[in-house]
Amino acid sequence: MVSTWWGCSSLTTTRTCCARAIPYVLRAGDPVGERLGRVAAERGMLLMLCDQCALERGLAEGEIGAAVAMGTVDGVSVGCFPDLYAALAGDPPDHVITL
């Protein structure tokens, strides 16, 4: 699914959730994150950061369970697995790939 947002695959990526070191890619000004943000907006993709990871890295403010993205590319949300599952519920994916 990762290659889809680069236009190199026939897969359709609809949601992306980032954890561990990957959240730094979604920082405002990061060239990869900015491109991913544009593609996500064009294709209606969800970009979600793990709330705990985002808070630890200064990419969100608030508390775990109620954090809000800060200093990220446009369109990024922050949440945990229940938030991701809720976002997937209306149009579940055929495959989930984690990195």
What series of H and E elements makes up the topology? EHEHEEEH
The tally of structural domains comes to: 1
Question: What's the story with the biggest beta sheet?
Answer: 3 strands, parallel
Distance between the termini: 10 Å
Task: Tell me the radius of gyration.
Answer: 13 Å
Structural class: alpha/beta
The multimeric state of the shown protein is single chain
Number of strands: 5
Uncertain runs are 1-6
Number of contiguous helices: 3
Strand content: 15-25%
Mean pLDDT comes to: 79
Main-sheet strand order equals: 1-2-5
3D shape? globular
| Helix fraction by DSSP (H/I, runs of at least 4) | 25-40%
Structural account:
With 99 residues, the chain is of the alpha/beta class. The chain has one domain (14-89). The chain has helices at residues 31-43, 51-56, 81-89, and strands at residues 15-18, 46-50, 60-61, 68-69, 76-79. Strands 1-2-5 form a three-stranded parallel beta sheet. Strands 3-4 form a two-stranded antiparallel ribbon. Strand 1, helix 1 and strand 2 (46-50) form a beta-alpha-beta unit. The longest helix is centred in the middle third of the chain and has 13 residues, at 31-43. The relative contact order is 0.19.
